[in-house]
């Protein structure tokens, strides 16, 4: 066995895992706080990448400001969706939210595809992160290293805010018992809207991060979202830390599959999902329902 | 219920009788454009192919000669079962006469069987697999624009001759990819080259870094990309990220279209070479057609080889039907007549259709220009070599098509 190649695959898996982690984190936040299975997540991720593309090509704003501006813009779009549509579904079965967000995803993707075709638009890697370092066992593009580190920081920060701060405590309390939390003078609907905005912003952030690696394509999210859902199911719906860890772990598993049996690399995640569901239906870190 | 059924049966028998008695002077044609309307091959084929078919109808002057022609389109989503269903429906219910385009070799081969069974006409310019005119050839089929043999021979031979004698393949895991890998391997080994390995990523992968790393560590001089569309774009882009070209290995995009180059941008694509039978800026004929196409195209793209192939194949089909004086709807007879007539149009110039159904014409080894060489949008390629029609496609004595063994 070739250890060099194996290490390289592990590292590549970690890079892909950071996208899975960022996306499944957003899904977990939204599910945990709003009880909505957000199928539009992939489309919003795609919008993040497109926002970065437009900022650069229309307004001349580069990668670094886009890292902040694109998630805010898409986050606002998400909050409008929540205010105008999703909020009416609170209290209904999960299925309604799933169908609504799935429909929204199809519409958003259709509109983008109508105007931009399917092969995608180029987005260059920022000059500061061009090039790569030779690690001995592989050539690591600096940009990919940056993606891993940056998304780790974002994931941990999000976890910290929700699990360890007063704001997060209020949020979690509002999910448990909205009426009681309202009685303390906290505006629960506004908090829920902002939470949805945060989850969507995380998706858009992943979109900006992936723009220089993948082409900016209308279907970039549709391809990814199914895998990310599997990640969330494996990690346990609603568990923040669970989805972060599973995201990275599954990236690595996928990387290893690409090395040992590439034909199965698209399906390995789902095989794992089936196994986990059989053994522990609430997911690896999920609380029993 | 019983009487309703009886009425239905007798009605359809009547309809059958009427339609067959009208055979002689029937001057109606229904064209079905079957392709990927919204997925990864939508820019290469998709709505552009429908436009090309409509342009062929308008340019043929058939309407003035009393012909009524209708174009319908369908989205096979790159899935053989969906493609087969649409094709069956078209023949059984909608009375479509000819199916054109059909990219994605797995779908292209599946539809090939349906057309043969229904005795229709199949003008395929979207699929790559050379099996369409070899093991799986059919008397109802003409394979029009390009095939894996042409791609492999053009690009493969050119690379080996300039020193790229060890190859590693990145092969899309379906009929087209494996056919292309096989044909390129033959071309490379015939000239004394060696294939050191290959890996097969699933169709429509987003991330190629794992596969590229394997290609990199193989130390092969050439990395052959036996994939297409979005897969090719992503693998080239990510190869430049991992410093593969900078490290001295060469990339061979075995199937590339102008829309891929457009999407990559010249900065990333410069220097790549690949083989195509059509480029918009070849001569006055191709320029004229392409400019008109571009004006009508929603996203102002230039036509791809496949779209130009749809146009060219339909023109020849119309010419044949007009000469026959009516649409007999007997696919085998029409294709036979098409083969008997030499082809000549503004897209591919003079050519012919071989007995195995292969349309032959010259192919060009193209090289992507450097950004400073390009004079403007869509000015992307220069012709590095011309491969004559007889050498560009499978020689007849090497074709395994059963139709040739009479």
Distance separating the two termini of chain B: 51 Å
Fourth-tier CATH superfamily name of the largest domain in chain B: Response regulator
- Give the C-level CATH assignment of the largest domain in chain B: Alpha Beta
Q: How many domains comprise the coordinates of chain A? A: 1
Report the C-alpha radius of gyration of chain A, rounded. 19 Å
Number of helices of chain B: 14
Question: What is the CA-atom radius of gyration of chain B, in angstroms?
Answer: 22 Å
Most extensive chain interface and residues per partner: A-B, 42 and 44 residues
**Cα shape of chain A:** globular
Q: What's the overall average pLDDT of chain B, rounded?
A: 91
Helix percentage of chain A:
over 70%
Question: Strands across the major sheet of chain B, in which order?
Answer: 2-1-3-4-5
| Pattern of helices and strands of chain B | HEHEHEHEEHEHEHEHEHHEHHHEEEEEH
Q: Do you know the CATH topology of chain A? A: ABC transporter involved in vitamin B12 uptake, BtuC
Low-confidence blocks of residues of chain B: 17-23
Beta-strand level of the residues of chain B, as a percent range? 15-25%
Structural class of chain B: alpha/beta
Care to count the β-strands of chain A?
A: 2
**Strand count of chain B:** 15
Tell me what the structure shows.
The complex is a heterodimer of chains A (289) and B (406). Chain A has 289 residues and is mainly alpha-helical. Chain A is built from eleven helices and two strands. Chain A has helices spanning 3-34, 41-57, 63-84, 94-116, 142-164, 166-176, 178-183, 188-210, 220-235, 240-260, 268-279, and strands at residues 132-134, 139-141. Chain A has a two-stranded antiparallel sheet. By secondary structure, chain B is an alpha/beta fold. Chain B has two domains: 28-146 and 283-361, Response regulator (Rossmann fold), CATH 3.40.50; 149-281 and 363-392, 3-Layer(aba) Sandwich (Rossmann fold). Chain B is 42% helix and 18% strand. Chain B is built from 14 helices and 15 strands. Chain B has helices at 2-21, 46-60, 80-92, 105-118, 148-161, 175-190, 209-217, 229-241, 258-264, 266-269, 284-296, 305-324, 331-340, 389-392, and strands at residues 28-35, 68-75, 98-101, 121-124, 141-143, 166-171, 194-199, 222-226, 250-253, 273-276, 343-345, 349-353, 359-360, 363-368, 381-387. Chain B has a five-stranded parallel β-sheet with strand order 2-1-3-4-5, sandwiched between helices. Chain B has a four-stranded parallel β-sheet with strand order 7-6-8-9, sandwiched between helices. The longest helix of chain B has 20 residues, at 2-21. The radius of gyration of chain B is 22 Å and the shape is globular.
């Amino acid at each position: 066995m070739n250890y060099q190649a194996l290490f390289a695959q592990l590292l590549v898996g970690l890079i892909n895992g950071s996208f899975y982690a960022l996306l499944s984190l957003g899904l977990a936040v939204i599910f945990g706080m709003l009880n909505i299975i957000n199928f539009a997540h992939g489309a919003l991720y795609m919008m993040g990448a497109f926002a970065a593309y437009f900022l650069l090509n229309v307004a001349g704003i580069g990668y670094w400001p886009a890292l902040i501006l694109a998630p805010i813009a898409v986050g606002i779009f998400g909050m409008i969706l929540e205010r105008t549509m999703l909020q009416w579904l609170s209290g209904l079965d999960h299925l309604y939210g799933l169908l609504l967000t799935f429909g929204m995803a199809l519409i958003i993707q259709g509109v983008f595809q109508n105007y931009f075709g399917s092969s995608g638009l180029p987005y260059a890697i920022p000059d500061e992160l061009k090039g790569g370092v030779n690690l001995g066992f592989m050539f690591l593009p600096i940009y990919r290293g940056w993606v891993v580190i940056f998304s780790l920081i974002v994931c941990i920060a999000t976890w910290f805010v929700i699990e360890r701060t007063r704001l997060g405590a209020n949020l979690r309390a509002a999910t448990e018992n909205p009426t009681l939390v309202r009685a303390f003078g906290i505006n629960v609907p506004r908090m829920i809207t902002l939470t949805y905005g945060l989850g969507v912003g995380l998706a858009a952030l992943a979109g900006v991060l992936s723009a220089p690696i993948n082409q900016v394509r209308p279907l970039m999210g549709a391809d990814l979202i199914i895998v990310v859902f599997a990640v969330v199911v494996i990690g346990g719906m609603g568990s923040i830390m669970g989805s972060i860890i599973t995201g990275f772990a599954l990236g690595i598993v996928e990387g290893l599959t690409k090395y040992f049996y590439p034909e199965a690399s698209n399906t390995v995640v789902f095989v794992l999902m089936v196994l986990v569901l059989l053994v522990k239906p609430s997911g690896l870190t999920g609380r029993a329902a | 219920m019983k009487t309703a059924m009886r009425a239905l049966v007798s009605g359809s028998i009547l309809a059958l009788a009427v339609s067959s008695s009208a055979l002689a002077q029937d001057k109606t044609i229904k064209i079905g454009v079957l392709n990927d309307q919204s997925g990864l091959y939508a820019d290469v084929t998709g709505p552009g192919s429908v436009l090309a078919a409509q342009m062929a109808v308008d340019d043929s002057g058939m309407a003035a000669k009393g012909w009524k022609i209708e174009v319908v389109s369908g989205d096979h989503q790159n899935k053989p079962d969906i493609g087969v269903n649409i094709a069956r429906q078209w023949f059984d219910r909608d009375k479509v006469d000819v199916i054109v385009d059909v990219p994605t070799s797995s779908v292209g081969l599946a539809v090939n069987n349906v057309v043969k069974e229904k005795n229709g006409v199949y003008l395929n310019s979207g699929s790559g697999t050379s099996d369409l005119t070899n093991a799986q050839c059919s008397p109802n089929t003409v394979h029009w624009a390009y095939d894996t043999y042409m791609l492999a021979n053009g690009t493969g031979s050119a690379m080996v001759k300039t020193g790229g004698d060890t190859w590693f393949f990145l092969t899309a895991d379906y009929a087209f990819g494996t056919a292309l890998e096989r044909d390129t391997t033959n071309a490379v080994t015939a000239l004394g080259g060696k294939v050191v390995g290959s890996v097969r990523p699933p169709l429509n992968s987003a991330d190629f870094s794992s596969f590229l790393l394997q290609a990199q560590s193989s130390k092969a001089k050439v990395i052959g990309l036996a994939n297409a569309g979005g897969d090719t774009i992503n693998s080239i882009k990510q190869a430049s990220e991992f410093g593969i070209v900078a490290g001295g290995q060469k990339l061979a995009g075995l199937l590339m279209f102008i829309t891929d180059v457009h999407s990559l941008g010249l900065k990333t694509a410069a220097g790549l070479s690949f083989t195509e039978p059509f480029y918009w800026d070849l001569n006055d004929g191709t320029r004229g057609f392409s400019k008109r196409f571009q004006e009508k195209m929603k996203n102002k793209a230039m036509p791809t080889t496949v779209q130009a192939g749809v146009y060219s194949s339909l023109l020849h089909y119309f010419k044949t039907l007009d000469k026959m004086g009516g649409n007999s709807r007997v696919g085998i007879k029409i294709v036979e007549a098409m083969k008997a007539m030499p082809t000549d149009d503004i897209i591919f110039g003079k050519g012919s259709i071989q007995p195995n159904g292969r349309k032959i014409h010259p192919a060009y080894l193209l090289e992507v220009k450097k950004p400073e060489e390009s004079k403007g949008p869509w000015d992307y390629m220069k012709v590095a070599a011309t491969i004559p029609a007889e050498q560009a496609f499978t020689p007849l004595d090497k074709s395994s098509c059963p139709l040739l063994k009479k």
